UniProtKB/TrEMBL annotation:
Residues 840-993 form the Helicase C-terminal domain. Residues 427-579 form the Helicase ATP-binding domain. The keyword Lipoprotein does not apply. The lineage of its organism: Eukaryota, Sar, Stramenopiles, Ochrophyta, Pelagophyceae. This is DNA helicase. It comes from Pelagomonas calceolata.
Length: 1111
């Protein structure tokens, strides 16, 4: 017989209360007055599910005890047994209410919640806190601790009220945005985000806030009924006068500040009465009766649940019971599998006995106590994943130092300036220096030096690059240097992304459009999994790592450990558990699962989101269903495993219970935002927002997801307003990891600018009723938030900017230099060319490229000039291609690979030919318009571009100017290049070094880069990913397809459309397959209706006929 889910939840709560109460009694607190029957709990241990629920309660008790111990803040005092939290709320300065939540011996105590009517005073939060505390101290015995929602002002007000009442209750306050705790010491205290103490304080604050919200709902009527409450509703005026005032004033604050003459002009002789009423609202407003609120909160077990219930329609008791059972089921579902595995009836019986008798409790609790970061723990080998139960029980990523985990493999030894730079970095970082700079000229082996530093320091490392191409190149290099360690890749998983935006000037709303690359999404999952399981992990990432990713603790806690012999109620129960991890039913493709029955056994196949593998779980039934075997199956391989941890298919893991809570919070915020819009007279914006949010909430409740769900990330993750989102950085250990920023002169400003751009776009959406204000919290980290999370960083660049040098305090001890190359290659010679005297730019450049020993790079100032110059070179017999931002990452790689192989002699581009590109075949760099002013021709940009020829023995750079003028930026770049060149020549002469060219990157490395950045294959779990271009066996078919795409591109440009708006890809492929030559045949092609036939039919037939005839 199935045990009701509500009973299981109650068993967990009762266990938690019993254990915490017994522990507090041992700390010197009086015995609990709440009745707990441990013998009933002990009797329940005979059944697996109740035993598992009791085990969940034991874990919760251990966490609560840790939280209460943290509230001593290191002082020799007993942990608090009773805690009350206060919050103040008012509506437009009126109807001020104080509310308090209560916590007693490990559980919320709804019967002790309090409400305090403060409507006869000004809307002053500290004063309201003091009055609430004073009223509370007049009622019953005070608690051990008061928690105030606010900062130092609220704390001081409450402390004075407690002293005036002659009480000894300790007070602390919790500030919302920074989550700083005041009163815990001489300075504000910032606890780690995963701290149980902070979690407990947040829970109490949420309860107090919800209690205050309930009071306002009573004062203003239920949200959603008729119209919104107004400060004028109770005013002594007739309806016409109220309407006149609402039309004249946009807010209650403006109304209160209005002079008497302005009021008299609007409502005549009633002005004096209204002004008096506004000045003394208590005389005209009745105090709220809070008895019904107390009954509601007690009945629902807390204010947060009461707010959710209060916002819904009344239902029959049967419906209410069914809803409560469903809620308990959603709570139990993600915990069930783990607790069935970890529950030990013998240990549980010992714990319950110790809690009942009051002896031996500390020893009995050891099985449920999380080890602290300073305790000794077994060292896990670098190549061995953490055991499933250990991974599941920790609150977040935490590692013990394991020296020597990184093992670098290279046939080369450090040479030139490299040994000195390595020693400088290791010494500085080893003594705890937070920021160091590696100033290395192009080709000096910065990556090689950084790899040695990573090996010596042996810390999890994040390598940040300014774009995908450079990130992929770094990944390839580090992967070859650390073949036995985890080198992972993390970048934006969108092939195409057009953000949501609105322009008020043109009243133009642009809906978000995106296409997800499932391959890169798999790499992102692989990176986070490695950070959670292994210490020897290097993650190479782009700036996308500062965007929200989902809490690592929730990601880990949602994971399901599977192992041979593990019991399950039924295959359907296992399938439900996997579905709760966001895997889609129906197939075994990536991110999906399917069930198949064979010979009495059931095989559940799960398409893993991390590897290109399928996990087959075979279940057999004797008396109960158990896992007989686990197998990882690839295209050509299959291997069995004893255990496997299945992570969620999405980093944004949320249980149904959390989604329901988020929906309630969204609806609460919607009420507040609608009031704000209506008060300002924005009726259209209010209605637009109401409809959109209502649709989104309905979809969230029905499907667990909705379009634009990321805009509700704050509510889904349970964050406070303005709190920073969880990002990839939160998957690293708190204070024991290393950041390496490559091309720091570009990446550091990039990090600084991301938040401002994101907020500017979303602010317009919020103000115009397209999004709730909480959408602003779906954002990247600010620069200050990012750097506050970074314990140590190496900023690598060939051209350190002022920002970069300031970050290391401009101390020579914090800057390591690399000038001499291990290959002996010196910086290229630089020549200024006066194009007008050289016979014209095109002719001189044509001759220079033709005579170049190696390949050539040419940089222009505009995309159009780059394309025109590439066409010019091609027309004169030089294989050339253009490269700029209009090419996606994969096509850029193909162009550069063609240059490396020699299929191209020259590549012409704009800004993409600067930082970090490893092109040792390039002997000539030509910079067109070198004297022009601007970012692309700054000294830093010129030095970086000159460096593209610094890997070739005979490197040469031509700076083309219109009239021979040498700008300050040119002069600075030339002087710096000549300075380095002289140092390198002197070193070679003193040490007998003969320059030799750098080794070219192999084809395997280039293939790996293309594989990393290639478009998604699509399929379930791919998020609507783009498809790869089709492969045609017949060259004529391929040529026709290319011709059709070129025609589509030109037609789209002429009509100012995107290409897919002209013809989708499927239509092009059907045209290639059917090759229509008549209008009637053309009508049979997929996607060609009358409108497209009339607009483009003749042109398409002309393209197809040309290739059919040639065939």
């Amino acid at each position: 017989m199935r045990v009701p889910f509500r009973k299981l939840r109650n068993l967990a709560k009762t266990t938690e209360a019993l254990v915490v109460s017994a522990w507090l009694t041992r700390q010197g607190h009086p015995p609990s007055r709440r009745l707990v029957l441990p013998e009933q709990l002990t009797a329940s241990l005979a059944l697996p599910e109740p035993a598992a629920a009791i085990d969940e309660g034991a874990w919760r008790a251990a966490e609560t005890i840790e939280a209460l111990e943290g509230l001593t803040f290191g002082e020799a005092i007993a942990p608090p047994s009773t805690i009350e939290c206060f919050d103040i709320s008012h509506f437009c300065g009126l109807q001020t209410v104080g509310a308090s939540s209560a916590f007693d011996r490990g559980v919320l105590a709804p019967d002790r919640y309090g409400w305090y009517s403060l409507s006869d005073g000004p809307p002053d939060d500290p004063a309201a806190i003091a009055r609430s505390v004073t009223q509370r101290l007049e009622e019953t015995d005070p608690p051990d601790l008061f928690v105030l929602d606010g900062g130092i002002a609220q704390l001081n007000a409450a402390t004075r009220a407690v002293a005036a009442a002659g009480a000894s209750t300790r007070c602390i306050s919790l500030a919302k945005r920074e989550e700083l705790i005041y009163g815990a010491g001489p300075t504000p205290l910032a606890l780690p985000r995963h701290s149980p103490t902070l979690t407990l304080l947040r829970r109490l604050r949420d309860e107090a806030h919800a209690a205050a919200l309930l009071a306002h709902r009573r004062a203003r009527g239920r949200a959603g009924e008729t119209t919104f409450a107004s400060v004028l509703d109770e005013a002594p005026l007739d309806p016409d006068a109220k309407r006149s005032l609402r039309a004249a004033f946009t807010s209650a604050a403006d109304l209160r500040e209005a002079p008497i003459d302005a009021l008299r002009d609007i409502i005549g002789d009633d002005a004096a009465a209204v002004q008096s009423w506004l000045a003394a609202p208590a005389a005209t407003q009745q105090a709220e009766n809070f008895d019904d609120l107390a009954a509601l909160v007690v009945g629902k077990g807390g204010a947060v649940d009461a707010v959710a219930a209060d916002g819904r329609r009344r239902a029959s008791s049967a419906v209410v019971d069914a809803a409560a059972e469903a809620q308990a089921r959603r709570w139990w579902q993600p915990r069930r599998a783990l607790r069935l595995e970890t529950a030990d009836p013998i240990h549980l019986a010992r714990l319950l006995e110790a809690a009942s008798e009051g002896t031996g409790l500390d020893d009995a609790l050891l099985s449920w106590t999380r080890p602290s970061h300073t305790e000794e723990r077994p060292v896990v080998a670098a190549s061995t994943p953490l055991p499933a139960n250990q991974m599941m029980k920790r609150a977040g990523p935490a590692f013990e130092p394991t020296p020597g985990t990184f093992q670098m493999r290279s046939p080369y030894e450090p040479r030139g300036d490299q040994p000195t730079a390595i020693a400088h970095l290791v010494k500085g970082l080893g003594r705890g220096t937070p920021r160091v700079v590696l100033a290395g000229a192009t080709g000096t082996g910065k990556t090689f030096v950084l790899a040695h530093a990573i090996e010596a320091l042996s810390k999890p490392t994040l390598v940040l690059a300014p774009n995908k191409v450079l990130a992929a190149q770094l990944w390839s290099e580090l992967h070859s240097l650390f073949p036995d360690n985890c080198v992972k890749f993390f970048c934006s998983h969108f092939d195409f992304y057009r953000p949501e935006s609105y322009s008020r000037a043109t009243d133009n709303y642009v809906e978000k459009r995106s296409a997800t690359n499932s391959r890169i999404d798999a790499l992102r999952h692989d990176a986070t999994r490695s950070l959670l399981e292994r210490r020897d992990t290097i993650v190479v990432a782009t700036v996308s790592c500062i965007y929200g990713l989902g809490m690592p603790a929730e990601y880990v806690e949602s994971a399901v450990p599977l192992q041979e012999g593990q019991p399950w109620a039924s295959p359907a129960a296992l399938a439900d558990t996997i579905a709760s991890l966001r895997y889609a039913p129906g197939s075994s493709d990536r991110g999906s699962y399917s069930l198949a029955e064979n010979d009495g056994a059931v095989t559940l196949s799960v398409g893993l989101v991390v590897d290109d593998l399928r996990l087959d779980v075979r279940l057999v039934s004797d008396d109960t269903w158990t896992i007989e075997s686990l197998a990882l199956v690839g295209e050509d391989t299959s291997s069995t495993v004893d255990a496997y941890v299945l992570y969620p298919a999405s980093h944004h893991a949320a249980t149904p219970e959390e989604i329901e809570r988020a929906c309630d919070d969204i609806e609460i915020e919607l009420v507040q935002e609608l009031e704000r819009h209506l008060a300002a007279g924005r009726w259209r914006e209010a209605e637009r927002l109401r409809r959109r949010v209502a649709d989104d909430v309905a979809m969230l409740r029905a499907e667990g997801w909705c379009a634009g769900a990321e805009n509700y990330a704050r509510h889904l993750s349970g964050r406070a307003e303005h709190e920073a989102p969880a990002t990839l950085i939160d998957y690293f250990p708190d204070d024991d990891w290393l950041l390496v920023v490559d091309e720091a002169h570009v990446a550091v400003p990039q990090l600084r600018g991301m938040h401002a751009g994101d907020r500017a776009r979303k602010s317009s959406l919020v103000e115009n009723g397209f999004r709730l204000k909480s959408a602003l919290d779906n954002r990247p980290l600010t620069a200050s938030e990012f750097w506050a999370r970074v314990p140590q960083a190496v900023l690598a660049t060939a051209t350190p900017s002022e920002d970069v040098l300031d970050m290391c305090d401009r101390s020579p001890e914090n800057v390591a230099s690399l000038v001499v190359r291990p290959t002996g290659v010196v910086d290229p010679s630089v020549t200024v060319v006066n194009a007008s005297k050289a016979g014209g730019l095109e002719d001189h450049l044509l001759a220079a490229v033709s005579n170049a020993e190696g390949r050539a790079l040419v940089t222009c100032l505009t995309k159009r000039s780059a394309e025109a110059l590439a066409d010019f070179l091609t027309s004169h017999g030089i294989p050339a291609a253009w490269l700029h931002a209009d090419l996606d990452s994969q096509k850029r790689l193909k162009v550069l690979d063609a240059l490396r192989r020699g299929d191209l002699k020259a590549v012409v581009g704009c800004n993409l030919l600067r930082e970090g590109l490893d092109l040792p075949q390039v002997s000539l760099v030509a910079i067109v318009g070198a004297e022009k002013r601007g970012y692309l021709r700054s000294a830093t940009s010129l030095i970086q571009t000159i460096g593209r020829a610094a890997r070739h023995v005979n490197g040469e750079v031509l700076l083309y100017t219109d009239d021979g003028f040498v700008s300050d930026s040119m002069r600075e770049a030339i002087e710096e290049t000549n300075r380095r060149r002289s140092i390198q020549l002197r070193y070679n002469e003193d040490n007998g070094v003969t320059p030799r060219g750098a080794a070219a990157a192999g084809g395997d490395a280039n293939d790996a880069l293309a594989e990393l950045l290639g478009p998604s294959r699509g399929g379930p779990g791919g998020g609507g990913a783009m498809r790869e271009l089709p492969v045609f066996e017949d060259p004529t078919d391929e040529a026709l397809h290319v011709a059709l795409r070129e025609w589509r591109k030109a037609t789209a440009a002429a009509n100012r459309k995107r290409p897919f708006r002209v013809f989708p890809e499927r239509t092009l492929q059907d045209l290639v397959a059917k090759k229509p030559t008549t209008t009637s045949e053309l009508k049979e092609v997929w996607g060609l209706g009358p409108a497209r036939l009339a607009r483009h039919g003749d042109e398409v037939l002309a393209v197809v006929r040309e290739y059919v005839v040639s065939r």
